Amino acid sequence: MGNSFVSICIPTFNGEQYLRECLxxxxxxSYKNIEIVIADDKSSDKTISIxxxxxxxxxxxxxxxxxxxxxxxxNWNR
Length: 78
Prior knowledge:
Elements: E1 6-12, H1 16-27, E2 34-40, H2 47-57, E3 61-65, H3 71-77
Parallel strand pairs: 1-2, 2-3
Helix pairs in contact: 1-2
């Protein structure tokens, strides 16, 4: 892979239960030339605050918040 840039895409919706585990796993990869792109589908739990906490620790995490709930397929496509 060399210097290839890799995007890890994480669609979320009210994912607070598993989000930390997911982000920790992505950040612990041995390959470091990554970005973590999170598309949130209008979560109403602590998902956004967890992501914000992780963004303060690692600038490779990028959050895109939907203005309305797009549903599973709509969020994946975004």
